[in-house]
Amino acid sequence: MPPDQPWLRPEMDEAGEAQPQPQRIITGLQGLLDPAEWVDADLAAEPASPPSAGPALDPDAHRNLRQMFATDAPVADPLAGLPSETGLGDALLGPGLRRARWIGLALVGVLLAGLLSGVDLLGPPPHGWPGVAQAYKTIEELPPGSVVLLDWAYDPATAGELDLAARPVLEHLLARETELVVVSQLPAGPATARRLLTAIRSELQAAGRLRPQAAAPPATGFLPGGAATLPLLGQAPTLGLPVDVEGRLTRDRAEMKTLEAQGPVLALVLSGRSEDVQRWLEQVQPLNGTPVIAVTGAGADPALRPFWDSGQLQGLVSGYAGGATYRRFLAAPASSQEEAQLRSQQIGHNWALLLLALVLLLGNIASLLARREP
Predict the structure, then answer these.
(1) Which is the most buried residue in 109, 127, 131, 294, by most CB within 10 A?
(2) Model pLDDT, residue 93
């Protein structure tokens, strides 16, 4: 083989067939390891062994198995067939309330008595929780002409309870001749606010407690966008209410000019949920520093009580009980409609307490008389 043609040697053929090693993009770095080749020998699936042939079942056995799994197994009553040793019959057999059918009949009788007898269990007035007196004092100290911003966060779905809580508070605000600006993020919120405020103004005018100059409806508008647009009420509330519910511009109204120049002196959040009040305290109050009074349903009171204890809320009026307590501070007679609604709520509440007391009493009696295992 000529010495000047080394590529003709046999070993050079094997070297030429060797695949070149791929060049890495990044080299020369300390700690950079070479990639390991994927070896799937350990992961190779073992050949599946054929299932062992079990004992063959005849068609009748298959049919019985299908019927057994298709139906629920009967549950035997452990107390069935036991003799009664108390002398009161089978009604007192069993642990606790399970066999005491007479307790259920007694509770149904109490419910029917409350619905059909017409007995008025009025009793004492509702208990007043802390926060109602402070709300009354805050509104009583407002000078006439002050602008109050209302976040109307409830609609007709929860108006049955919240109207009773909000009516005396709104009546107090109107009697103090404050200027109200109502903003709602619910589609039916502005109409709910206009309905209640119009009814309160009519009652105050009939009683001679409202001047004719203060009988104009407040600026009421809808602010879409949910939590994303809520901080706008803390930065520029007039931009959040460019037009009212009737499509008229609000920039020429006196209360809107005062709101733009001085800001609100008080914020009133009316909602049946605690989340709406919390959003206002977190997203709006830090921007303007305005005191906040919450008028909520009774179910939202426990969640908002820490905000009242910490001083973030200037007042807290919750449920029909809070409205009744505020009415006593207001020292003004309620309308016939409000009085009837409060009376109905109080009677139903007292009947419910009586029913709860009977459940506890009869449950303990049934537990004492029930037959127990030795």
Answers:
(1) 294
(2) 47
Q: Average pLDDT for residues 116-143, to the nearest whole number?
A: 78
Q: What would the pLDDT profile of 244-271 be if each residue is shown by its tens digit?
A: 777 777 777 878 888 888 889 999 999 9
Residues 282-304: what's their mean pLDDT?
92
Question: Would you give the distance in Å from CA 310 to the centre of its chain?
Answer: 21
pLDDT in tens, 325-343: 898 888 776 666 777 667 7
pLDDT at 130 exceeding the cut of 80: yes
The structure tokens 């108390």 sit at 86
Q: Where in the chain is the domain with CATH 3.40.50.720?
A: 132-334
Pairing relation of β-strands 266-271 and 147-153?
parallel
- Please report, for residues 191, 223, 366, 371, the alpha-carbon distance to residue 153 in angstroms, rounded to integers and kept in the order given: 12, 11, 46, 54
Q: What tokens does 131 get? A: 């926060």
- For the chain, helix, strand, coil in percent to 5 are 50, 10, 45
**CB-CB contact of 113 with 105 (8 Å):** no
Q: What's the start-to-end Cα distance of the chain, in Å? A: 110
Burial label, 247 (beta-carbon count in 10 A; 0-12, 13-18, 19+): exposed
The sheet with strand 147-153 has its strands ordered as 219-222, 179-184, 147-153, 266-271, 292-296, 315-318
| Nearest Cα to Cα of residue 77 among 92, 101, 97, 99 | 99
Give the DSSP H/E element, type plus range, for residue 363.
helix 336-369
Instruction: Judge residue 323's burial from the number of C-beta atoms within 10 Å of its C-beta, 0-12 exposed, 13-18 middle, 19 or more buried.
Output: buried
Contact yes or no for 128/323 (Cβ under 8 A): no
Residue pLDDT, tens place only, 42-101: 555 555 555 555 566 677 777 777 777 776 666 555 545 545 444 444 444 445 445 556
| Degrees, nearest 5: CA angle 265-269-274 | 140
DSSP state string for 173-239: HHHTTPEEEEEESSTTHHHHHHHHHHHHHHHHHHTT-S-GGG-SPPEEEE--SGGGTTTHHHH-TTT
Q: At what angle do helices 301-309 and 274-283 cross, to 10 degrees?
A: 30
Q: Given the DSSP bridges, would you call strands 147-153 and 179-184 parallel, antiparallel or unpaired? A: parallel
